[in-house]
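TonB-dependent receptor, pasting as requested.
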Amino acid sequence: MHYPKAHPKLITLAVASACAAFIPAYAQQATTEDSRGGDIPTTAVQQVVVTGLRQSMASSLNLKRQSDGIVDGIVAEDIGKFPDTNLAESLQRISGVSIDRVNGEGQKITVRGVGPDFNMVLLNGRQMPTSNLGDLNGRSFDFSNLASEAISQLQVYKTSRAENPAGGIGATVNVITARPLDKLGTYSSIGIKAVHDTSNNKLPGDEKASSSTTPEFSGIYSTTSKDGHWGLGVSASYQERNLGFNQASVSNGWRGPFRGDENNWGTIPNAGAPGSQNVVNHPKPTDIYEVPQNLNYSMTGVKRQRTNGQLTLQWQPVKELTTTLDYTYSENKLQTKRNDVSAWFNFGPSASTWTNGPVAAPLVYTEFIPSGNSDIAMGGANFATKTQNKSLGFNTQWRATRDLKLELDAHHSTAESKADSPFGSNNTLGTASFSRGDTTADFTEDFPVLSIKGADFVNAPQQVTGSVFQNGYMKGDVSQVQFKGRLRVLEASNLNFGVGAVNVKNRSAFSNQQRDSWGGATKPSDYPSSLWHADSVRQYFDQLSGSRNPNLFNTFYTFNFAQVRDTVAKASGMPEKYLPKNTFDTDQRTEEKSKNLFLQLNSDWDTALPMHTAIGVRYEKTDVVSTALVPTATSITMVSANEFPVQFGAPSFTTLTGKYHNLLPSIDWDMDLRDDMKVRASYGETIGRPRYDQIAGGQILNTLARIDGGTGSQGNPALKPVKSKNFDLSWEWYYAQNSFFSVNAFYKDLENYAGQSKVDATPFNLHTPVGGALWNEASASGCGADTVCIRNYIFTHHPTAPGVTVTGVDSSGNPSGNIVGQPGDPVAHFQITTFSNQKKASLNGLEFNLQHMFGNTGFGVSANYTYVHSGLRYDNGSTGEQFALVGLSNSANLVGIYENDKWNVRAAYNWRGEFLSSTFDGAGPNPNYVEPYGQFDLSVGYNLTSKLSLQFEGINLTNSTNRVHGRDQHQALYVTQSGPRYMVGARYKF
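Structure tokens follow.
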């Protein structure tokens, strides 16, 4: 038997890995810890003395080989030089990790088919808060807020381990920053780049930034005292980026689905009915089909300023004690301008051509407008947002004895997103020319083509119609304390233990100021013609097939949002309607208090084939308190025979609570088949906490009730988290220096997904006239269940009773007025839609990894492919609400490198297969399928001297476009074109 290489804490592993990354050519005869906690000389693992790309890949290989369970990672090439400008872009190169792109770069991650809400992100082992105005109630981490210059390593834990904070079903991602005591001495570097984003060139003048080329600055400084007792690290970066994207969309979704023999608003004429002669290949009665609600072309310009900074102080008074104080700050500011042109279908007389069923989609859909005076809508937007992340943390590590090491870590971190413009966090100013005749949408190619007859901007000039001004706010707050220890026991085992507490707060609030004056807010003469700027559509979609269709409605007008807003605000006499509210309509606040403890025993077994085991258990107990601001219902009024609207007063806060606990075991086993070959097996249980909107405390009643009661909705703080039982098998072959091949198989059995359910409730104790004294008297007088008779009887016989108001006589000769429920009347019952744990899912997959270095030639390649499968997929032939796994997709990456003392080159192709991104499309329960996407990136560096290097980077050199469709590939939802991005820069090391 021998002393084990025991499992480390996250910070300990960070130190060891950072050393591996940053001092390969300066190996010292000091001791550190390997990835399992054993004391070893640093020179024992530093066999490779090269730096840069090859060393980064070698360090990532060592991390994978020495860790418990399935762990992958990416290590910085050098101090201040991470392989990618965006952390999500780096993560996508890891097998099983896919990214969601926003504004042309990675923002969220999906791991092994598990969506962004169920992946935990740590910063130096600490749970991070989330904040994203694009998803006010989600838990996904937005990687676009963090620059990469100060990052030393990314670790992706695909199997569970007892010491990791709970919450990552797909994976737990640990983002590790540099620490000055990792490397004695003074080191620093500065970098400058010019970023040229070609997508800014493909924008109208009202959206285009003044320059497509913007600056980026970064610097990192690390110094220690000569005796190694203290260290100081500072890093900072600032980036500006001007970009654009153009999108064709059916932005309000597809109306339906209908059956081929239905006759409702939005359906096409049934076979044999008037108008059916205009339908080619009519859907069969058993087919389902959908029709477009609108077709929109939008051109959007975005300006971004991202600032990151970190300060780290370390003190090591004696060798056995190290303390670290660090502060991390990031700010991401976005200013967005948009102009669009669209046509809204009102489902009048139409002609259409259809694909074959059983799910039929329109190839061509035409709506006849003989009056020629429908609206050609041309909207605009101008809003800005700001997201700030702040994290203050303290860590101390003490080796009390040779066999006992203790660690205390505490931090307080916040993430806050809010409006950064007087116009709010999102807005739309609608304008229109009322001169639209027959309108056609052609979906035969990737780009949906809109055709309009009769447009006349001279006799029907543009005017402002409706408007929407919104304010969103989200703040996440995490306070966490962790105490950990490692005790060497017996002869070949370590006992890892720890306790912790974390308090997570989330607040999301929203307000909406909307003016539904879509027929015209003021007169066309209120707007000088100089406000409108003529432009053409086709030039902004030249990468999409179909954009050259000669039938395309190619003329539209852009405008300066602020100028038009000022004009309509003055002309309308209601300037307050053209700014966001200064109060919130909804305000949801959730607090989760968790306590945890863990134990894990790591053992090495000196058997014929050496084995290592890590057996652990984690216990989590969570209390949830969720409070929400909701409109307070005050009464129920009978306004017609079958309409009983709810009346509301001032909003108030309501509170709901819940709690849950989980015992999470984990077992990791690995065995060395020979020196270069290893097999692994793991079993672990993990949880993913519910989304914040699913546990929101507020109970919201729908306005319109009926004779049998009303409806409403609320969250359920008592929801349990999704729980996953995870099985993993891996075979790894390290067949040459810095080269390996591995195959991983995984299976996840998930339960407790939230589904919608209904409960009967009597919120606010609202009294309804139904069944009251007056109602029963009328019913007994001969009216029975005839509500018209009952209503007339009450008005005739009790016109002055409490709650009864007679206002006159309607067109049918019946009395008109209101009847309000009174004390003594029955309390109304409401069917409240809420969430409950009722859904299950399972998924499985395979990961293939290859990393090969071609001897000493400088050439290398890294390739991986991930296959993911689940039987729980969306059924396009079903018309109801469904539960299906979003984010499930295959993926592949191919990266080639070349490096010598002067040059370093990396070429990467990243591909993600089709996946379901949502089960709602704006119109109702409909799927959103993101089509396969591949992107090619290139990075070339040249070392002028040992200190000065030049670099070129090209992102999306293939100018790839994105497309999302519905139940059928012809049902386009979003088709987006952006453009390549180029960067040239220099970096100097001191």
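Note for the archive: The chain has a mean pLDDT of 89.
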